[in-house]
Amino acid sequence: MIEKIEEIYSSFKNELNALSKQAEVLNLKAAILGKKGSLSEILKGLKDASPEERQKIGPVSNEIKKSIERDIIDKLKAIEFDEINEKLEKNRTDFSLRDSLRELGLQGGGLHPTHQIQREIEDVFLSMGFEVLDGPHIEDEYHNFEALNIPETHPARDMQDTFWFADKKHLLRTHTSTIQIRGMKERKPPFAFVGPGKVFRSERTDTTHEMAFHQLEGMMVGEKINTGHLIYFMKTLLKAIFKKDMEVRLRPGYFPFVEPGFELDIRWKKPDPKDESARHSGWLELLPCGMVHPNVLKAGGVDPEKYSGFAFGLGLDRLVMVNYAIEDIRLLHRGDLRFNKQFASF
Ligand code: FA5
């Protein structure tokens, strides 16, 4: 009987090797291990065998049954793997386009310096357990102002002159603080996130002001979060970006959505385009921040009696200016390839 069982196993192996479809493998399994399968039939005969024979054949047949089951699982996995590879091969994406462009003498793409810095900061915060959130460019009045403790008649609305849509209800968001409200509503404390993105203001442009620029919002909410946490995270952020301890200045700042509010300025040596060796030393307003106002926590569905938090809004374009000693913010948005190529990883 043992020889018969071994014979079944060896012919099973040969048949299995020749198969390439999952259904065929399952049929073979049924033909051997199914109710009327060849191995099952033999095992049924065991009941008529003598106790000594049963003692000998029992363990062998069990071992072979296990081997068959294992072989079948391996084969099914291998077939699935082959099918995936076949699909990948068929739907192959040609990532070599950039090189082909270069072969054709055309310019390939690269990341804008603002985007590069945004990704770098996202990585710093991801490593500290923050999430990265997104928010819409077209906002409603509620998320851009009201929920942030800026009611309709509040003079702080004038600080951020806005592009309104014809319905007078929607606008291009003036800051990424809108992400605070959306982020809070979808989470339960404790939580921490950053929200980068483009913002828009109806501004007269100059060397440090643009109409469309980039901010990165940050927020942390939990029990007993205080100004010490805020300062720690701001310093960690600046050190990661500038790779050294930066000279910073914290002064009181007013934003209706934080209390207390601060302006964090950074020591900046402004380059003089007329005289390459000259540097005007000064402070650049970079990072407004503060402890989240209780009304804002409430608007986000967070109990201000139990939880507190900090928030900040970093000007990304200004950060690029400081990092690369760029004298005019407008250079960043002009799309001049001679300028952009200096930063892109072509
Ligand atoms: C705000 O937009 C607040 N939402 C920031 C905030 C968030 C405060 C959370 C407190 C808590 P402000 O208008 O100062 O603040 O803009 C933030 C940063 O964006 C500025 O520090 C500056 O770096 C940058 N910024 C502001 N206006 C311009 C502009 N026109 N062009 C380029 N960068 C700008």
Element layout with pairings:
Blueprint lengths: L1 H17 L3 H12 L4 H8 L5 H40 L6 H7 L9 H15 L3 E2 L5 E3 H4 L25 E3 L5 H8 L5 E10 L11 E11 L4 H16 L5 E5 L5 E15 L2 E18 L1 H6 L8 E8 H9 L12 H4 L6
Parallel strand pairs: 1-4
Antiparallel strand pairs: 2-3, 4-5, 5-9, 6-7, 7-8, 8-9
Helix pairs in contact: 1-4, 2-4, 6-11
The chain binds adenosine-5'-[phenylalaninyl-phosphate] (FA5).
Would you mind describing this structure in some detail?
It is a single chain. The protein is of the alpha+beta class. It folds into 2 domains: 2-90, no CATH class; 113-343, 2-Layer Sandwich (BirA Bifunctional Protein, domain 2), CATH 3.30.930.10. Helices cover 42% and strands 22% of the residues. It has helices at 2-18, 22-33, 38-45, 51-90, 97-103, 113-127, 141-144, 178-185, 227-242, 294-299, 316-324, 337-340; strands at 131-132, 138-140, 170-172, 191-200, 212-222, 248-252, 258-272, 275-292, 308-315. The strands form 2 sheets. A 7-stranded mixed sheet has the order 1-4-5-9-8-7-6, sandwiched between helices. Strands 2-3 form a two-stranded antiparallel sheet. A hairpin with a 5-residue loop joins strand 6 and strand 7. Helix 1 packs parallel to helix 4, helix 2 (22-33) runs antiparallel to helix 4 and helix 6 crosses helix 11 (316-324). It starts with a helix and ends in a 6-residue tail after the last helix. Adenosine-5'-[phenylalaninyl-phosphate] binds at residues 160, 175, 177, 201, 203, 209-210, 213, 215, 255, 258, 261, 285-286, 288-290, 311-313, 315, 317-318, 329.
